[in-house]
Write a structure and sequence with these properties.
CATH topology of the largest domain: Rossmann fold
Shape: extended
Number of strands: 34
Number of domains: 5
Distance between the termini: 46 Å
Oligomer: single chain
Length: about 700
């Protein structure tokens, strides 16, 4: 430990303190005739030291302490605990090799920890310890890098078969430590055929065929063979069949299918590839997928008095969402009568109500339907009519007066999530034209984007919603959305952030509210077969405040199976209910409870899927492990030679790291200084008494 005094004032201030101490000593004792010259000198020295020390402490000096901490090198073994490892060889023998390596390293005074991809310690190498249904090596490596940050982590040993079916390859990243890899499993290519992937619409509409369900079929060492491919529904009915031919020893082919959407809800389908004699595995010959069938789209009617680039931008945004169907009309006098019969779920008014007052011929009738409305302002908007048509914001402005503003996300807005990166990009988009004047946000309105003028964050809204009242409304008070989309594409090469903001705003005002006082729903739409199915239960009173201590009955029924009944009670600390693992299938549920004397019901459905990615490919990928080790200054060894890594660790060096920790404290906090000051004052007083003074 090394300490030194650090002054917060210029060095010549110390000379002033010394001078002050000398001045106090001289002035106090130069005329004291009661003392002899020798006594004066002794007393003056004590008084001078005391005065200089007190003056120096008033400058608030600091004491800096530097502690050196020696960190021993640490080695982490990261074990791939996925299910594919169970078919790779003798796990017990591999575990014995790891234990021998651990003992050798610890014998040299270093640390070695064995952890798995789930960031848990590995205590045994048995098949039960290898249950992971996905392999994400990159996430596991990043977890090690994060958990051991600041420690002397010198080497990571990855024990894996190199098979990845989730996330990105770990070879895409450089790590701040050496990475050694241990190859476990059989990398020999086997005779096999498999379904490599399924590409299907996540959403379909009732009564339609959802096009291009595509199955990717691969094979090895099956030249000249053919196999049947079929897709079945949950009840086992064959919906479509095709034949695939294996023309070489290494084939890959995509087969298209069209399936019907005959029922509303989540539909589970199973694709099966015929298993041929001699195939290494039959488990990778089937895949399942889920399609959500909905009963129609939300119809959006966009009306405008004249063409505008913003309309094209809005159309491009809305067409990205499969749940919306957009109808754009540039309204002329001849269209007014036909508008009365238009069917819509959401109304977008671009520069309506207009200054030409065409809106007076039809808009009142459309608004009387109490459908959600999204106002988009522009130079043709009549603000006096606009103020009277909505309860979002009032604008007092002179006709034709505009201002240039940029946008800033309102940090207190919480009705939907706006990412930090999304907000930063929106703030960098070019200025828009908005009406110049006084703005007054109405009661019940939520501001999503505020106006930012010349570097000043104003209280004026740019995008706001009001979800109260009989109709939900939103208003975008600027012109220039098309410029924002072009600028975002120039900045990022995509139209993600702005499109997401507009679509979420539309979804917010178009969603149909659940009016029931009992709401029970699963935390996910699709669960894996080894997951617990978790429900969230919420109960509300007449003014929709959460209430607790309610008894709920939950009925769960698989399609074509027997119904099971569960009873549970929610409390303020527990509003969830879990079911033990369920077999694969589509399930419906119905929850019921008596809330304030009235029977309430909440129903829905969920899917339990049995997609075991770990059985799709069991051929070890040692080339990936070799590349990972080579790019991170490490070595690759097969599992039966894992003990040889001790030589690599010794050769590359396990080096102690010295870390200096610096600590600053006020010097005046040292207790011995008070003792020193009291001692000096006491010595001076005792000497004065001894020399005959008072």
């Amino acid at each position: 430990m090394k300490s030194e005094i650090v002054s917060q004032t210029p060095a010549w201030y110390i000379l002033l303190c010394v001078g002050l101490g000398i001045a106090l000593a001289v002035l106090y004792y130069i005329r004291a005739s009661i003392f002899s010259p020798a006594q004066k000198r002794i007393l003056a020295v004590v008084r001078g030291i005391l005065g200089a020390l007190v003056a120096f402490l008033l400058l608030n000096p600091l004491i800096k302490t530097v502690n050196s901490l020696i960190l021993k090198p640490k080695v982490v073994v990261l074990v791939d605990n996925s299910r594919s490892m169970r078919s790779g060889g003798d796990l017990k023998q591999a575990g014995a090799g790891l234990e021998a390596l651990k003992k050798d390293i610890e014998k040299k005074g270093y640390e070695l920890e064995i952890r798995n991809l789930d960031d848990a310690p590995v205590n045994a190498f048995t098949p039960d310890a290898f249950q992971g249904r996905k392999t994400n090596l990159s996430a596991g490596m990043n977890a090690v890098m994060s958990n051991y940050e600041g420690q002397n982590l010198s080497d990571v040993i990855l024990f894996s078969d190199g098979i990845i079916n989730d996330g990105v390859s770990p070879t895409f990243q450089k790590y701040p430590f050496r990475v050694h890899t241990v190859g476990f499993g059989d990398s020999t290519q086997k005779r096999d055929a498999f379904i490599a992937g399924v590409s299907a619409n996540k959403l379909a509409y009732l009564g339609n065929n959802f096009c291009m369900v595509s199955l990717d079929i691969g094979s090895y060492l099956l030249r000249g063979k053919t196999a049947r491919v079929e897709i079945r529904d949950t009840e086992g009915k064959v919906l479509d069949t095709k034949t695939v031919g294996y023309g070489s020893d290494d084939t890959f082919e995509s087969l298209p299918f069209q399936l019907p959407a005959n029922a509303v809800g989540k539909q589970r389908f199973i694709a099966r590839l015929q298993v041929l004699e001699g195939e290494h595995s039959a488990q990778n010959n089937s895949r399942e997928f889920v399609v959500d069938v909905v009963n129609g789209k939300e119809k959006i009617l966009l009306l405008a008095p004249a063409p505008h680039p913003d309309i094209k931008a809005l159309k491009s945004i809305i067409d990205r969402n499969e749940l919306f169907e957009l109808n754009v009309k540039i309204v002329q006098e001849s269209d007014v009568a036909a508008l009365q019969s238009e069917v819509f779920d959401v109304l977008i008014l671009h520069q309506f109500p207009d200054a030409g007052q065409l809106h007076t011929r039809f808009l009142g009738t459309l608004l009387s339907r109490q459908k959600p409305v999204f106002f988009i302002l522009g130079p043709k908007t009549d603000l006096s009519y606009f103020n009277g048509m909505q309860n979002i914001v009032g604008i007092n402005s002179q006709l034709g007066k505009t201002d240039k503003v940029t946008a800033k996300v309102n940090p207190s807005f919480s009705l939907f999530t706006i990412g930090q990166g999304q907000g930063a990009l929106i703030a960098d988009l070019p200025p828009l034209s908005v009406p110049f004047g006084n703005y007054m946000v109405q009661t019940g309105s939520d501001v999503i984007l505020g106006q930012y003028v010349s570097g000043i964050n104003t209280s004026r809204p740019l995008l706001a919603v009001n979800l109260t009242g009989t109709r939900k409304m939103a208003a975008f008070l600027g012109e220039g959305l098309w410029q924002w989309r072009l600028e975002e594409y120039a900045m990022t090469g995509a139209h993600e952030h702005l499109d997401d903001l507009v679509l979420k705003t539309l979804q917010l005002i178009s969603v149909r509210e659940e009016k029931g006082k009992l709401r029970v729903y699963p935390v996910a739409d699709v669960f894996e077969v080894d997951q617990r199915v978790t429900f969230v239960a919420e109960v509300y009173n007449e003014i929709f405040e959460r209430i607790f201590d309610q008894n709920i009955r939950l009925k769960v029924k698989p399609r074509g199976g027997a119904e099971k009944v569960y009873d549970f009670t929610i409390s303020e600390g527990t509003s969830r209910f879990e079911l033990s693992t369920l077999p694969p299938g589509v399930y419906t549920y119905e929850a019921s409870a008596t809330v304030q004397g009235k029977q309430e019901v909440s129903a829905g459905q969920f899917v339990v899927s049995d997609t075991d990615l770990e059985t799709q490919n069991t051929t070890a990928d040692f080339s990936l492990l070799r590349t990972l080790a080579r790019e991170n200054n490490g070595d690759f060894v097969p599992a039966n030679q894992i003990i040889e890594l001790r030589h690599s660790l010794e050769k590359k060096g396990l080096i102690n790291r010295v870390v200096a920790q610096e600590d600053l404290k006020d010097l005046i906090n040292l207790r011995w200084l008070l003792a020193l000051i009291l001692a000096l004052a006491t010595v001076e007083w005792v000497l004065r008494k001894y020399f005959g003074s008072y």
